[in-house]
Each structure stands twice: as C-alpha cells, then as structure tokens.
Amino acid sequence: MKVAVVTGASSGIGRSAAVEIARRGSGVVLTYSSNGQGAKEAVREIEQLGGTAVALPLDIADTSGFPAFREDVTGVLRETFGRDSFDQLVNNAGFAGMAMIEDTTEQSFDRLTDGLFKGPFFLTQTLLPLLADGGAIVNVSSNSALPHVTEPGYSVYASAKGALIVLSRYMAKEFGARGIRVNSVSPGATRTRFADDAFARNPEIVPELARQFALGRVGEPDDIGLAVAALVSEEGRWITGQNIEVSGGHHL
Fold this sequence. Notes:
The protein is α/β, with parallel strands linked by helices. It has eight helices and seven strands; from the N terminus they run βαβαβαβαβαβαααβ. The protein is 44% helix and 17% strand. It is globular.
C-alpha cells in the first residue's frame, strides 16, 4: 500500500485531496492545526471508504516542531502501515491574509511567508529522508500568483504562493535523480473555510465572483482535490516541474 502525507487536511482542499488519494488506495497521514474535529471527520470519511488514515497535529509556520513531527510520522508509518517510508506528499497547509502594501506590517509579512513558503520548504526538507524513491510531491499554490489574477491587497500572500511555484520547479530538478516528481497546483477562488469562511459569511459575493469564471461558478474543494490526487498518482507519472492552474477558467 502506498502512503500519503497531506498537510492541512481537516477541511477544504486538503481534506478533499486526502479523501481522493485514499480512494485510489493509499493510506493517509493527515495534519491539522486548530480544527481537530475536522481532522477526526476526515479520518472517519476515509475509513468509511475502506481506507486507513491517521491525523497528527502540525503548525506549518513553526519549523521548530518539524523534527518531532518527523518522529511522529515515522512512528505512524511503522505502527499503522508497516513501512519506514511514504510515497506522496501534499503541502497544502496554509492561511490567508490581505492588506494593501502601505498597510502591511512586518509581523503580518513574516506570518504569511513563514506559513506559506518557509514552512513547506523546510517541512519537505525534514520529510525528504522518509519519502520513497519514485514518490511524488504536490505543492498547493494559488492563481493569485499568476499575472491575470492580480488583485490589490494580496501582495504578500500571492508573492509567497508564487515562490512556492518556483520552489516546486527546483524541487523537481533536484529530486528527479531519485525519480521523485514535483508539481504545483494553483486553485482559483474555492468554496472552503479559507479566509474565515468568507463565502459562507458573504454569500452575496458568490454570483458576482462566478461571472469571472469561464465555467460559470466558483471552485469546490473536490475540483482541486481530484487534480491533486491525479498528480500524485499513476495518472501523473510523466508530469513534473509543472504549475497547473485549477480554476475553471478564472479571468480567461
């Protein structure tokens, strides 16, 4: 059995990716930060599919906790899956933040760059000895990093997500000798708990936003989760070093 590690999988895109990866036959180690209940529900959903999942806490913005997290993953791999390695890594955990450049504080800048770029960089480095040759990584970026979706207020968030796209390409180059594929996906606006449940709190914005998409609606978590699962699975075996916008034709 293959095993995946999916960060930030207690809800939204991460949870969907974890479920879809499990549906393809992989065991899943999923992480959560504040939403422990959501993580339990994700584990239960995977178990109802006949799969196996374990939830572990992780703060993606705190690199000091990464060595202990690697030990936790090592223990779960041995005890639950009878493995000393895993095959698929999805760096999904993150959080939103917006401010105009003139209003951006150094504290908010550091929070975003720590969580969205530094965290995935060093988590991947930390877990790399456990990632099996021939494995796959998907880094979840955002189409806010792409030229046609430049919106005021997202300079730091989008820049960090853009850095993740570039990092994915370099990871693909460096890890390719081990047969490890690395890609990034750039979702457009997606109906998740992201940004304090913005869509749920402001449903009136959805129809207006939907008009920006060629397919006439905003994204759903499964739209992205399916793409992530395909990329880390056999369907994506000849795709590496790519950034794939998964946005239903946002601003096409």
